[in-house]
Amino acid sequence: MKLRSLLFVPGDRPERMTKALAVRADALILDLEDAVALSAKPAARAAVANFLGQPHTMPLFVRINPLDTPLADDDLAAILPGRPDGIVLPKAQGAATLAALDARLSGDIAILPIATETPAAIFALGTYGGVTRRLCGLTWGAEDLPAAIGAATSREADGSYTAPYQLARSLTLFGAHAAEVPAIETVYPDFRDLDGLAAYAARGRRDGFAGMMAIHPAQVPVINTAFSPSAAEIDAAQAIVDLFAANPGAGALALDGRMVDAPHLKAARRVLSLAAD
């Protein structure tokens, strides 16, 4: 499942769900958690369940409420008959939370945990591997954690993350790769600042993230571009692959005045695999 862009849609706004199908996101996240007031959750569950039963052209994930709350029981009862493609699991706290949700699912429903929303979660970011084949990625957030610990903000005046949240982001990145699943970058809150989004998404791909969540349809094309190899990247990667194919058994080779070796070959193959998706 290609997950460059995952667009959040409030679960109590069915008209937005229909419009979102026309956006070229790789997946939609129908939100039953933070985007929906408590009083609106029953209606949102009904709307999401109805939407899951309609024809759709992209994977549909549902963000349920935290698994240790009765709200999650009601969410799952409402949506599982509609066979969502995946569940976004908020307030995940490592292997135990992942296993608990896995035990409640059947079929091939995927799980995407949001893995940094509580203090305890930070210490479990290396535990997601080997729990279930449903795990399709790992993502993080920079809003719930500061609220949980009484921090004033997760960001500096220039919008960059403060040190604790840089750490949370980095551990999510490495935790995902340790579990051999894609790392998904968190949202960029200012949906009007598309230039800032492009720079943020480019840094995410540079650092090893494979995709990103979006909060507005206008963000999706920018994210898709950022997480797709350019023609120049594809050409450069193909040149490395071709060079090693022409020199079997070589450990390091010269290409355009620089040395390339096994890590460069691995990275080149990764670029070509992204281009082929």
Walk me through the structure.
The protein is α/β, with parallel strands linked by helices. Helix content is 42%, strand content 14%. The protein contains eleven helices and ten strands. It has helices spanning 14-20, 41-52, 70-79, 95-102, 119-122, 144-149, 163-178, 194-207, 219-226, 231-246, 262-276, and strands at residues 5-10, 27-31, 60-63, 86-89, 110-113, 138-139, 183-185, 211-214, 252-255, 258-261. The strands form two sheets. It has an eight-stranded parallel β-sheet. A hairpin with a 2-residue loop joins strand 9 (252-255) and strand 10. Helix 10 crosses helix 11 (262-276). The longest helix has 16 residues, at 163-178. The mean pLDDT is 93.
Please give the alpha-carbon distance between the first and last residues: 9 Å
Hey, roughly how much beta strand do the residues contain?
Answer: 5-15%
Shape: globular
Q: Sheet with the most strands?
A: 8 strands, parallel
Number of helices: 11
Rounded mean pLDDT is 93
What structural class is derived from the secondary structure elements? alpha/beta
Q: Report strand order across the widest sheet.
A: 5-4-3-2-1-8-7-6
Q: Low-confidence parts lasting 5 or more residues at pLDDT below 50?
A: none
